[in-house]
Protein backbone atom coordinates (compact mmCIF):
# COMPACT_ATOMS: atom_id res chain seq x y z
CA UNK A 1 0.00 0.00 0.00
CA UNK A 2 1.36 3.44 -0.85
CA UNK A 3 2.09 5.52 2.24
CA UNK A 4 -0.62 8.06 1.54
CA UNK A 5 -3.21 5.39 0.92
CA UNK A 6 -2.09 3.62 4.08
CA UNK A 7 -2.40 6.76 6.19
CA UNK A 8 -5.80 7.48 4.73
CA UNK A 9 -6.89 3.92 5.43
CA UNK A 10 -5.50 4.12 8.97
CA UNK A 11 -7.33 7.35 9.71
CA UNK A 12 -10.53 6.02 8.26
CA UNK A 13 -10.17 2.93 10.46
CA UNK A 14 -9.29 4.76 13.67
CA UNK A 15 -11.66 7.66 13.27
CA UNK A 16 -14.65 6.16 11.52
CA UNK A 17 -17.09 8.83 12.65
CA UNK A 18 -15.07 12.05 12.41
CA UNK A 19 -16.23 13.25 9.06
CA UNK A 20 -19.77 11.90 9.15
CA UNK A 21 -20.95 13.35 12.46
CA UNK A 22 -24.06 15.44 12.18
CA UNK A 23 -24.63 18.05 14.87
CA UNK A 24 -27.91 19.87 15.47
CA UNK A 25 -27.97 22.85 17.83
CA UNK A 26 -30.92 24.32 19.72
CA UNK A 27 -31.45 28.04 19.53
CA UNK A 28 -29.06 29.90 21.80
CA UNK A 29 -29.95 30.26 25.44
CA UNK A 30 -30.23 33.93 26.50
CA UNK A 31 -26.86 35.67 26.44
CA UNK A 32 -25.11 35.38 29.80
CA UNK A 33 -26.66 31.99 30.62
CA UNK A 34 -23.98 29.44 31.46
CA UNK A 35 -25.65 26.12 30.56
CA UNK A 36 -24.19 23.77 33.16
CA UNK A 37 -25.87 20.39 33.20
CA UNK A 38 -28.64 18.38 31.52
CA UNK A 39 -31.04 15.51 32.24
CA UNK A 40 -33.51 13.61 30.09
CA UNK A 41 -37.28 13.51 30.63
CA UNK A 42 -39.08 10.26 29.70
CA UNK A 43 -40.57 12.14 26.73
CA UNK A 44 -37.04 12.67 25.36
CA UNK A 45 -37.02 16.40 26.04
CA UNK A 46 -34.09 17.88 27.94
CA UNK A 47 -33.91 19.75 31.26
CA UNK A 48 -30.97 22.16 31.34
CA UNK A 49 -29.64 24.04 34.37
CA UNK A 50 -28.07 27.50 34.14
CA UNK A 51 -25.38 28.43 36.69
CA UNK A 52 -25.21 32.18 36.08
CA UNK A 53 -28.97 32.59 36.68
CA UNK A 54 -31.15 30.44 38.97
CA UNK A 55 -32.93 28.91 35.98
CA UNK A 56 -33.98 25.54 34.61
CA UNK A 57 -34.98 25.33 30.97
CA UNK A 58 -36.68 22.64 28.95
CA UNK A 59 -35.60 22.19 25.35
CA UNK A 60 -36.43 19.68 22.64
CA UNK A 61 -33.43 17.74 21.27
CA UNK A 62 -33.54 18.99 17.72
CA UNK A 63 -32.22 21.63 15.42
CA UNK A 64 -33.26 25.21 16.22
CA UNK A 65 -35.61 24.26 19.10
CA UNK A 66 -36.44 27.04 21.56
CA UNK A 67 -35.21 26.72 25.19
CA UNK A 68 -38.25 27.36 27.40
CA UNK A 69 -37.77 28.75 30.91
CA UNK A 70 -39.30 26.17 33.25
CA UNK A 71 -38.43 27.34 36.76
CA UNK A 72 -36.63 30.10 38.66
CA UNK A 73 -35.20 29.26 42.09
CA UNK A 74 -35.40 31.74 44.96
CA UNK A 75 -32.53 32.50 47.36
CA UNK A 76 -29.71 31.52 44.99
CA UNK A 77 -27.85 32.80 41.93
CA UNK A 78 -27.54 29.53 39.99
CA UNK A 79 -28.49 25.92 39.32
CA UNK A 80 -25.79 23.30 38.68
CA UNK A 81 -26.06 19.51 38.97
CA UNK A 82 -29.21 17.74 37.78
CA UNK A 83 -29.95 14.01 37.65
CA UNK A 84 -33.00 11.83 36.99
CA UNK A 85 -34.14 9.99 40.14
CA UNK A 86 -35.21 6.34 40.20
CA UNK A 87 -38.83 7.55 39.86
CA UNK A 88 -39.75 8.45 36.25
CA UNK A 89 -39.87 12.20 35.54
CA UNK A 90 -38.61 13.14 39.03
CA UNK A 91 -35.23 14.85 39.26
CA UNK A 92 -32.77 16.11 41.84
CA UNK A 93 -31.23 19.53 41.27
CA UNK A 94 -28.51 21.39 43.17
CA UNK A 95 -28.46 25.18 43.42
CA UNK A 96 -25.88 27.60 44.81
CA UNK A 97 -23.97 30.83 44.39
CA UNK A 98 -20.89 30.54 42.20
CA UNK A 99 -18.86 33.50 40.95
CA UNK A 100 -17.44 33.18 37.44
CA UNK A 101 -15.34 36.30 38.14
CA UNK A 102 -13.39 34.62 40.95
CA UNK A 103 -14.20 31.01 39.95
CA UNK A 104 -15.25 30.31 43.50
CA UNK A 105 -18.42 29.24 45.30
CA UNK A 106 -20.13 31.05 48.18
CA UNK A 107 -19.72 28.66 51.12
CA UNK A 108 -23.01 27.59 52.64
CA UNK A 109 -25.10 28.69 49.65
CA UNK A 110 -25.79 25.24 48.14
CA UNK A 111 -29.00 23.22 48.46
CA UNK A 112 -30.60 20.17 46.85
CA UNK A 113 -34.16 20.14 45.52
CA UNK A 114 -36.63 17.64 44.08
CA UNK A 115 -38.25 18.57 40.78
CA UNK A 116 -41.38 16.70 39.69
CA UNK A 117 -44.28 17.43 37.35
CA UNK A 118 -48.02 17.57 38.02
CA UNK A 119 -50.44 15.65 35.81
CA UNK A 120 -50.92 18.75 33.68
CA UNK A 121 -47.16 19.18 33.31
CA UNK A 122 -46.49 22.02 35.74
CA UNK A 123 -43.06 21.73 37.45
CA UNK A 124 -43.14 21.39 41.24
CA UNK A 125 -39.89 22.17 43.04
CA UNK A 126 -39.32 21.43 46.70
CA UNK A 127 -36.09 22.07 48.62
CA UNK A 128 -34.90 18.88 50.33
CA UNK A 129 -31.89 20.13 52.28
CA UNK A 130 -29.15 22.68 52.51
CA UNK A 131 -25.75 21.24 51.55
CA UNK A 132 -23.81 23.59 53.80
CA UNK A 133 -20.91 21.23 54.45
CA UNK A 134 -20.13 20.68 50.75
CA UNK A 135 -17.67 23.30 49.51
CA UNK A 136 -18.65 23.17 45.82
CA UNK A 137 -21.20 20.62 44.64
CA UNK A 138 -20.80 19.81 40.94
CA UNK A 139 -21.84 16.60 39.13
CA UNK A 140 -24.56 14.48 40.75
CA UNK A 141 -25.93 11.02 39.97
CA UNK A 142 -28.80 8.96 41.40
CA UNK A 143 -27.97 5.45 42.58
CA UNK A 144 -30.51 3.23 40.77
CA UNK A 145 -33.11 1.55 42.99
CA UNK A 146 -32.02 3.48 46.12
CA UNK A 147 -32.80 6.89 47.61
CA UNK A 148 -29.13 7.85 47.31
CA UNK A 149 -27.56 10.59 45.23
CA UNK A 150 -23.79 10.86 44.84
CA UNK A 151 -22.53 14.45 44.80
CA UNK A 152 -19.08 15.51 43.57
CA UNK A 153 -17.40 18.27 45.54
CA UNK A 154 -14.99 20.00 43.14
CA UNK A 155 -13.32 22.21 45.71
CA UNK A 156 -13.12 19.82 48.67
CA UNK A 157 -12.23 16.89 46.39
CA UNK A 158 -14.72 14.40 47.84
CA UNK A 159 -17.72 12.42 46.63
CA UNK A 160 -20.64 12.60 49.07
CA UNK A 161 -23.63 10.30 49.41
CA UNK A 162 -26.94 12.03 50.13
CA UNK A 163 -29.98 10.03 51.26
CA UNK A 164 -33.00 11.79 49.76
CA UNK A 165 -35.32 10.04 52.29
CA UNK A 166 -33.46 10.57 55.60
CA UNK A 167 -31.61 13.69 54.30
CA UNK A 168 -28.39 12.28 55.72
CA UNK A 169 -25.19 13.47 54.03
CA UNK A 170 -22.01 11.41 54.42
CA UNK A 171 -18.56 11.28 52.83
CA UNK A 172 -18.64 8.37 50.38
CA UNK A 173 -15.26 8.48 48.64
CA UNK A 174 -12.03 10.30 49.39
CA UNK A 175 -8.99 9.85 47.15
CA UNK A 176 -6.07 11.99 45.89
CA UNK A 177 -7.45 11.75 42.31
CA UNK A 178 -10.51 13.77 43.41
CA UNK A 179 -8.53 16.78 44.64
CA UNK A 180 -7.94 20.13 42.92
CA UNK A 181 -4.26 20.53 42.08
CA UNK A 182 -4.09 24.11 40.76
CA UNK A 183 -4.01 27.19 42.95
CA UNK A 184 -5.86 29.55 40.57
CA UNK A 185 -8.85 27.67 39.15
CA UNK A 186 -9.45 24.97 41.75
CA UNK A 187 -11.50 22.13 40.23
CA UNK A 188 -11.08 18.53 41.31
CA UNK A 189 -13.79 15.88 40.81
CA UNK A 190 -16.41 17.19 38.40
CA UNK A 191 -18.67 14.58 36.75
CA UNK A 192 -19.81 11.30 38.37
CA UNK A 193 -21.54 8.37 36.63
CA UNK A 194 -22.47 4.80 37.59
CA UNK A 195 -22.05 2.26 34.78
CA UNK A 196 -21.25 -1.43 34.38
CA UNK A 197 -20.57 -1.93 38.12
CA UNK A 198 -18.19 1.04 38.32
CA UNK A 199 -18.22 4.59 39.57
CA UNK A 200 -16.67 6.72 36.83
CA UNK A 201 -15.53 10.25 37.67
CA UNK A 202 -13.75 13.12 35.97
CA UNK A 203 -11.20 15.32 37.73
CA UNK A 204 -10.68 18.61 35.95
CA UNK A 205 -7.34 19.93 37.27
CA UNK A 206 -5.86 16.43 36.98
CA UNK A 207 -7.25 16.17 33.40
CA UNK A 208 -8.46 12.60 33.86
CA UNK A 209 -11.45 10.32 33.80
CA UNK A 210 -11.09 7.29 36.10
CA UNK A 211 -13.24 4.46 37.43
CA UNK A 212 -13.46 2.22 40.46
CA UNK A 213 -15.68 -0.81 41.23
CA UNK A 214 -18.74 0.50 43.08
CA UNK A 215 -22.49 0.16 43.43
CA UNK A 216 -23.03 3.65 44.83
CA UNK A 217 -24.85 2.12 47.80
CA UNK A 218 -21.78 1.24 49.92
CA UNK A 219 -21.50 3.39 53.05
CA UNK A 220 -17.88 4.15 52.19
CA UNK A 221 -15.96 3.35 49.02
CA UNK A 222 -12.31 2.27 49.18
CA UNK A 223 -9.74 1.19 46.61
CA UNK A 224 -7.59 2.43 43.76
CA UNK A 225 -9.23 3.88 40.67
CA UNK A 226 -8.13 2.86 37.16
CA UNK A 227 -7.35 5.72 34.76
CA UNK A 228 -9.75 5.77 31.79
CA UNK A 229 -8.66 8.99 30.01
CA UNK A 230 -5.65 11.29 30.41
CA UNK A 231 -4.56 14.77 29.28
CA UNK A 232 -8.14 15.85 28.70
CA UNK A 233 -9.60 19.31 29.47
CA UNK A 234 -12.56 17.43 30.93
CA UNK A 235 -15.72 18.87 32.35
CA UNK A 236 -18.36 16.11 32.49
CA UNK A 237 -18.65 12.90 30.42
CA UNK A 238 -20.90 9.92 29.68
CA UNK A 239 -20.28 6.17 29.48
CA UNK A 240 -21.82 3.82 26.93
CA UNK A 241 -23.42 1.31 29.34
CA UNK A 242 -23.44 -1.34 26.58
CA UNK A 243 -19.67 -1.45 25.91
CA UNK A 244 -17.80 0.88 28.30
CA UNK A 245 -16.82 3.49 25.70
CA UNK A 246 -16.47 6.98 27.17
CA UNK A 247 -17.41 10.34 25.63
CA UNK A 248 -15.85 13.38 27.26
CA UNK A 249 -17.25 16.94 27.23
CA UNK A 250 -13.94 18.79 26.73
CA UNK A 251 -13.67 22.49 27.55
CA UNK A 252 -11.33 25.05 26.05
CA UNK A 253 -9.03 24.71 24.25
CA UNK A 254 -10.56 21.54 22.80
CA UNK A 255 -14.22 22.63 22.57
CA UNK A 256 -15.35 19.21 21.50
CA UNK A 257 -16.23 15.65 22.36
CA UNK A 258 -13.32 13.33 23.18
CA UNK A 259 -13.73 9.60 22.70
CA UNK A 260 -11.98 6.73 24.50
CA UNK A 261 -13.02 3.23 23.51
CA UNK A 262 -13.16 0.54 26.17
CA UNK A 263 -10.05 -1.15 24.77
CA UNK A 264 -8.05 2.12 24.82
CA UNK A 265 -8.58 3.03 28.49
CA UNK A 266 -5.70 5.10 29.83
CA UNK A 267 -5.18 7.05 26.60
CA UNK A 268 -5.78 10.62 25.45
CA UNK A 269 -9.32 10.99 24.03
CA UNK A 270 -9.68 11.26 20.25
CA UNK A 271 -11.73 14.28 19.18
CA UNK A 272 -14.82 13.08 17.31
CA UNK A 273 -16.93 16.25 17.27
CA UNK A 274 -15.96 19.91 17.40
CA UNK A 275 -12.33 20.38 18.37
CA UNK A 276 -9.70 23.14 18.59
CA UNK A 277 -10.24 25.85 15.99
CA UNK A 278 -13.90 24.92 15.52
CA UNK A 279 -16.92 26.73 16.93
CA UNK A 280 -19.63 24.10 16.58
CA UNK A 281 -19.40 23.06 20.28
CA UNK A 282 -18.15 26.05 22.30
CA UNK A 283 -17.52 25.16 25.95
CA UNK A 284 -19.11 21.71 26.30
CA UNK A 285 -20.18 21.16 29.92
CA UNK A 286 -21.99 17.80 29.92
CA UNK A 287 -23.14 14.92 27.74
CA UNK A 288 -26.02 12.47 28.13
CA UNK A 289 -27.67 9.93 25.85
CA UNK A 290 -30.76 10.87 23.90
CA UNK A 291 -33.90 8.83 24.57
CA UNK A 292 -33.39 5.18 23.59
CA UNK A 293 -30.13 6.05 21.85
CA UNK A 294 -27.26 4.77 24.03
CA UNK A 295 -24.15 4.65 21.84
CA UNK A 296 -25.95 6.42 18.99
CA UNK A 297 -26.99 9.97 19.89
CA UNK A 298 -25.37 12.32 22.40
CA UNK A 299 -26.99 15.41 23.85
CA UNK A 300 -24.35 17.98 24.76
CA UNK A 301 -24.75 21.20 26.74
CA UNK A 302 -22.44 24.06 25.76
CA UNK A 303 -21.85 27.47 27.33
CA UNK A 304 -21.15 29.31 24.10
CA UNK A 305 -17.57 29.85 25.38
CA UNK A 306 -16.41 30.00 28.99
CA UNK A 307 -14.36 33.14 28.79
CA UNK A 308 -17.42 35.41 28.43
CA UNK A 309 -18.60 34.58 31.95
CA UNK A 310 -15.25 35.69 33.33
CA UNK A 311 -14.93 38.88 31.28
CA UNK A 312 -18.63 39.75 31.25
CA UNK A 313 -18.21 40.49 27.55
CA UNK A 314 -20.90 38.12 26.28
CA UNK A 315 -20.02 36.68 22.88
CA UNK A 316 -22.59 33.94 22.24
CA UNK A 317 -25.35 31.94 23.89
CA UNK A 318 -25.05 28.34 25.03
CA UNK A 319 -26.95 25.49 23.41
CA UNK A 320 -28.14 21.97 23.85
CA UNK A 321 -26.73 20.18 20.82
CA UNK A 322 -27.53 16.78 19.38
CA UNK A 323 -24.48 14.84 18.18
CA UNK A 324 -25.34 11.89 15.92
CA UNK A 325 -22.65 9.23 16.28
CA UNK A 326 -24.03 6.92 13.60
C1 LIG B 1 -26.80 33.50 47.56
O1 LIG B 1 -27.48 34.34 46.66
C2 LIG B 1 -28.77 34.73 47.11
C3 LIG B 1 -29.45 35.48 45.95
O2 LIG B 1 -28.68 36.56 45.54
C4 LIG B 1 -28.61 35.58 48.36
O3 LIG B 1 -29.88 35.96 48.83
C5 LIG B 1 -27.89 34.75 49.43
O4 LIG B 1 -27.62 35.55 50.56
C6 LIG B 1 -26.57 34.21 48.89
N1 LIG B 1 -26.01 33.27 49.86
C7 LIG B 1 -24.74 33.31 50.24
C8 LIG B 1 -24.35 32.34 51.31
O5 LIG B 1 -23.92 34.07 49.75
C1 LIG C 1 -31.40 30.07 51.57
O1 LIG C 1 -30.48 29.04 51.20
C2 LIG C 1 -29.68 28.59 52.27
C3 LIG C 1 -28.67 27.62 51.70
O2 LIG C 1 -29.28 26.58 51.06
C4 LIG C 1 -30.57 27.93 53.32
O3 LIG C 1 -29.80 27.52 54.41
C5 LIG C 1 -31.63 28.95 53.78
O4 LIG C 1 -32.52 28.31 54.65
C6 LIG C 1 -32.38 29.53 52.59
N1 LIG C 1 -33.26 30.58 53.02
C7 LIG C 1 -34.53 30.64 52.64
C8 LIG C 1 -35.31 31.81 53.11
O5 LIG C 1 -35.04 29.78 51.92
C1 LIG D 1 -5.41 25.38 15.51
O1 LIG D 1 -4.90 26.59 14.98
C2 LIG D 1 -3.58 26.87 15.38
C3 LIG D 1 -3.23 28.27 14.87
O2 LIG D 1 -3.59 28.42 13.52
C4 LIG D 1 -2.67 25.79 14.82
O3 LIG D 1 -1.34 26.02 15.23
C5 LIG D 1 -3.11 24.44 15.36
O4 LIG D 1 -2.35 23.41 14.78
C6 LIG D 1 -4.58 24.20 15.05
N1 LIG D 1 -4.99 22.98 15.73
C7 LIG D 1 -5.69 22.03 15.11
C8 LIG D 1 -6.02 20.83 15.94
O5 LIG D 1 -6.06 22.11 13.95
C1 LIG E 1 -15.76 41.52 23.36
O1 LIG E 1 -15.59 40.36 22.53
C2 LIG E 1 -15.53 40.65 21.14
C3 LIG E 1 -15.51 39.32 20.39
O2 LIG E 1 -14.48 38.49 20.87
C4 LIG E 1 -14.31 41.52 20.86
O3 LIG E 1 -14.27 41.84 19.50
C5 LIG E 1 -14.41 42.81 21.69
O4 LIG E 1 -13.24 43.55 21.55
C6 LIG E 1 -14.61 42.47 23.17
N1 LIG E 1 -14.88 43.69 23.91
C7 LIG E 1 -14.30 43.95 25.08
C8 LIG E 1 -14.73 45.25 25.73
O5 LIG E 1 -13.48 43.22 25.61
Give the overall shape, derived from the CA principal axes.
globular
Q: Span from first to last CA?
A: 28 Å
Structural class: mainly beta
Which regions contain 5 or more consecutive residues with pLDDT less than 50? 1-19
- Please name the CATH architecture: 6 Propeller
Number of domains: 1
By CATH, the superfamily comes out as TolB, C-terminal domain
For the biggest sheet, the summary is: 4 strands, antiparallel
Indicate the mean pLDDT.
Answer: 94
Bound molecules: 2-acetamido-2-deoxy-beta-D-glucopyranose
Which class in CATH terms? Mainly Beta
| Widest sheet, order of strands | 1-26-25-24
**Radius of gyration from CA coordinates:** 19 Å
- What is the CATH T-level topology? Neuraminidase
Brief account:
With 326 residues, this protein is mainly β. It is built from two helices and 26 strands. InterPro entries: 6-blade_b-propeller_TolB-like, Hetero-Diels-Alderase-like.
SSE arrangement:
Elements: H1 3-14, E1 22-25, E2 35-40, E3 46-50, E4 55-59, E5 68-72, E6 79-84, E7 91-95, E8 98-99, E9 104-105, E10 111-117, E11 123-130, E12 137-142, E13 148-153, E14 158-163, E15 169-174, E16 189-195, E17 198-203, E18 208-213, E19 226-229, E20 234-239, E21 246-250, E22 256-260, E23 270-274, E24 284-289, E25 297-302, H2 307-311, E26 319-324
Antiparallel strand pairs: 1-26, 2-3, 3-4, 4-5, 6-7, 7-10, 8-9, 10-11, 12-13, 13-14, 14-15, 16-17, 17-18, 18-19, 20-21, 21-22, 22-23, 24-25, 25-26
This protein binds 2-acetamido-2-deoxy-beta-D-glucopyranose (NAG) (4 copies).
One 2-acetamido-2-deoxy-beta-D-glucopyranose (NAG) binds at residues 75-77, 97, 106, 108-109.
Amino acid sequence: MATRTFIFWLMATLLPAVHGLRIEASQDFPLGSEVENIALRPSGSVLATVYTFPHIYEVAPRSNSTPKLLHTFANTTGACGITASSTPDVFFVVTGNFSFQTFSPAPGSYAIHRLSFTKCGRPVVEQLAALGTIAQPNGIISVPGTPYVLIADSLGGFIYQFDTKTLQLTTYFDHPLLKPTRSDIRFGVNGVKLSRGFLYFSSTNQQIVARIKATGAEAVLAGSPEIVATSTPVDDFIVNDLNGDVYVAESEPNNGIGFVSENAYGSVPVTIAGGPNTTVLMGPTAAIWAKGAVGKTLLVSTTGGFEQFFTGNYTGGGTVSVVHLD
